[in-house]
Amino acid sequence: MWFPYALSFALITSVTVILAKKVMMGMNEYLYLFLTGLFTIPVLFFIIVKFYTIPNIDQTFWVNTGASTVLNVFAAICAYRAIKIAEVSLISPISAFNPIFTAIISLLTIHEVINPKGWLGIFLICLGAYFLQRTKSTKNFLEPIKLFFSNQAIRLSLIAYFLWALTPIFQKVSILHTDPQVPPFASFVGMIGTTLIYTAPALKFSKNILGLTKKYLKLLILIAILSAIGQAVAFIAFSLTNLGFATAVFKLSMLFTVLLGWLFFKEHDIKERLLGSTVMLLGVLLLVM
Fold first, then answer.
1. Chain centroid, CA 44 distance in Å
2. Phi, psi (5° rounding) for residue 57?
3. Are 82 and 91 in contact (CB under 8 A)?
4. Model pLDDT for residues 58-69, shown as the tens digit of each residue
5. In angstroms, rounded to a whole number, what is the distance separating the alpha carbons of residues 96 and 263?
6. Do 156 and 82 meet the contact criterion of CB atoms below 8 Å apart?
7. What phi, psi does 2 have (nearest 5°)?
8. Per residue in 220-275, pLDDT tens?
9. What's the number of domains the chain is made of?
10. Helices 167-176 and 59-85, interaxial angle, to 10°?
11. Is residue 167 within 8 Å of 134, Cβ to Cβ?
């Protein structure tokens, strides 16, 4: 029952990344995050009122939602800055490092052992990342490794996905502390929090806000609708299954985004990036399953 929700989230994520790239050709990441949050909040509220109800919440809900909100703010700024300055077919597959961070955090904090399949999964993810940077013009074996770690967008993405490795833990606890359980409600409250935080940098670092909003209004509304639906189906998936299973299916967005980046932006080295993404996806499946 959870699989269609997780697959829907993967597809929606891929489409919103492409739309985000299009919009951020004309604005910075702060204004983008502020505006999409502003438009997404009422859509999420409509979904909650239409299909659920306003739940009772407790102090644990507020603590965990607050923690995930703060982490989401920093993660999103890093991630969308990376999308703005680099090709999406290169950046999107970096999300495969997310379960590696989760496994390492679990190993260090609760001493959860990584089994042989898990280590093989980590190896495949790293191997896939190598293929992402390997092109026809590659001169030697070490060049893709050097390029990988010297790329600013990749470094920003790694920071973002490290932080996003932590947020599902807090989000699942938040969901469990709504009565009755309303998965999108935690997302709704978190979205209000992140949008309020983005307000100051958006106003400070952006010019012609009204003009840009008007120019990209249709795309922003479409992104808001897709983001709200995506948040809803993701939180439903979290509530119905193991976080690892849901996260693994979410990572199908890597392949979808690589293909869409090639289709809409004519991004190059598509064969190498598709190969790298596929190898990384296999690594994710081994690691989280």
1. 18
2. -130, 160
3. yes
4. 999 999 999 999
5. 22
6. yes
7. -80, -25
8. 999 989 988 887 888 788 778 776 677 778 888 888 888 898 888 888 778 888 88
9. 1
10. 140
11. no
